[in-house]
Amino acid sequence: MEDSPSIETVYEAIYALYNQNTNPAEKQRASNWLNEMQKSVYAWKIADELLARKVDLNSYYLAAQTMRSKLQNSFHELPQDSHASLRDALLNHLSKLDDTTDGVIATQLCVALAHLALQMGSWKNAAVDIASRYNLLKTCFILELLTVLPEEVNSRTLRLGANRRSEIYAEFSDNLPAVNQLLELCLTSEANNNRIKIRSYKCFASWLNIRSVA
């Protein structure tokens, strides 16, 4: 894909892929085209715009999935001076999620931000930063972010070197008190919310590996 496609062209391909009335050959062409788009360097901007527009569920899901995939496989495409703006954009997208948001989309965005945090060496104490956003992000999404952070450190699909992993474990060890404090706050303030309680315990279990390493 030599040139960046217009956002309208992207929507047309998404519609063709998911529309039940589209013939099989056209669906396959749309699928192939979208796959190539997701692999291109233009996918970063396109995914961000689709996330901002939130036109429909299909485009919203594709955008979240694309962002997660790009951060997992193509982080090297980004110049270092763009990392902070991408982080801020993802946090902004996450701040707009609510209880009506499809769970798969929320998970994709949380994993995407976790992958960014793990690869972005300049984002120091990401876990503490995320925990400090208690009043800006919904509690359930903060807990999901903090849950996937330690889970993804040893992901086979994420290209982290041994030195970076060691650096992350040392930082996470320092971040444990802040994470524990947040979990205690969640369990106290949301004592009657079983969903939050379950997520809090799941987050605690995810950080047990950090405790054992520490």
UniProtKB/TrEMBL annotation:
InterPro entries: ARM-like (IPR011989), ARM-type_fold (IPR016024), Exportin-1/Importin-b-like (IPR013598), Importin-beta_N (IPR001494), Importin_beta-like_NTR (IPR051345). This is Transportin. Pfam families: IBN_N (PF03810), Xpo1 (PF08389). It comes from Aphis gossypii (Cotton aphid). PANTHER family: TRANSPORTIN 3 AND IMPORTIN 13, TRANSPORTIN-3. SUPFAM superfamilies: ARM repeat (SSF48371). Signal peptide: none annotated. GO terms for cellular component: cytoplasm. GO terms for molecular function: small GTPase binding.
